[in-house]
Amino acid sequence: MSDVDVAVTTEKVRRRSGPLRIQFNTHKRCVRTGRVDHPGQSNTAARACLPHKATGPAPCENRQPSSVTKFDTAAHIAAQAQTRAPPYIVPILACAQARAFALTGRQEEARSAPRTMGENIWAGKHVPGPSPIDDEAYEAFGAVILGYLGEGEEAEPHVKRSLTMLAESGRYRTTAGTHLALARAFIHRRHPDPEQAARAAIDAVATIGGREVPDGPTAGRAAGIWRTLVRNTDWARLESVRDLGEQVSSGRRALPPGPTI
User: Fold this and answer.
1) Start-to-end CA span in the chain (Å)
2) Which of 25, 96, 104, 152 allows an S-S link to 188, with CB 3.0 to 4.6 Å?
3) pTM
4) What angle, rounded to 10 degrees, do the helices at 90-103 and 65-82 form?
């Protein structure tokens, strides 16, 4: 696939999918933070993404019919593209396809696509274009997909393996996004653990360490997790949940209204 083919395909997806895009995004945190660790990095991953206001996974049954249609379109485009894609692009497309399937509630297909991703992890040399999916990205993406399916218990070990691989890497935005994925996994357990969810979100904010503006994407996603937690009056009284509320409101006059996760 040439650079021209990639550009044309990306433009077709943009026109056909509206706010839902399979797009080239910077670095490999395509479904985590959507931001770069260092300025000037080339676009290196593809994603099927939510409209800009979305802050994280939400139960697929809450999706509106129009959104489901767009997610179906994205999954179809990703599947078609895989047949002609270079080997290192296949797992990126499979990731986008899995996310789109998960958001439409298609459990079987959503679980099948990550298997394709895992079977095609790129171990070759670095090549121009989107960065290939490595072992860390595979674990992180798998966790996010399972989060969309509401399978927190299954997502948790994937997130922890990703965090182990990221240790001492210096990839602070990726690490922060993975802490947020862990927080969502704790919430989406069969028996949710709000204390650990709040602590994981606090870890995400601490990882950024002031390298974002106060209302940046990490704080915004952590705030979405906090809003989810405080909807339960018992959880809202937990010390770690109160601490999270203070963290995400730090530097702001008031925490503005916004979506939950």
Assistant:
1) 36
2) 152
3) 0.69
4) 160
- Quick check: 201 and 222 in contact, CB under 8 A? yes
The 8-class DSSP code of residue 133 comes to: P
DSSP assigned state of 225: H
* In the chain, where the domains are located: 1-133, 151-261
Query: Which DSSP state fits 41?
Result: P
Longest dimension (CA), the chain: 55
Number of other residues whose CB lies within 10 A of the CB of residue 87: 11
The predicted-structure confidence for 138-192, as pLDDT tens digits, reads as follows: 998 889 899 888 899 999 999 999 999 999 888 888 899 999 999 999 999 999 9
Both tokens assigned to 72: 């179906």
Choose among 197, 195, 174, 177: nearest CA to 185: 197
Q: How far apart are CA 171 and CA 177, in angstroms?
A: 10
User: What does the alpha-carbon distance between residue 244 and residue 253 come to, in Å, rounded to a whole number?
Assistant: 16
**CB pairs under 8 A, 24+ apart, for 156-162?**
156/182, 156/185, 156/186, 156/189, 159/185, 162/136
Per the structure block, which two tokens stand in for 85?
């894609």
Looking at residue 78, its amino acid is A
Tell the residue number behind the tokens 């299954």, with chain if given.
154
Assess contact for 213 and 254: CB atoms under 8 A: no
**What is the dihedral angle through the alpha carbons of 96, 41, 179, 97, rounded to the nearest 10 degrees?**
0
For residue 55, the number of C-alpha atoms closer than 13 Å in the C-beta half-sphere is 23
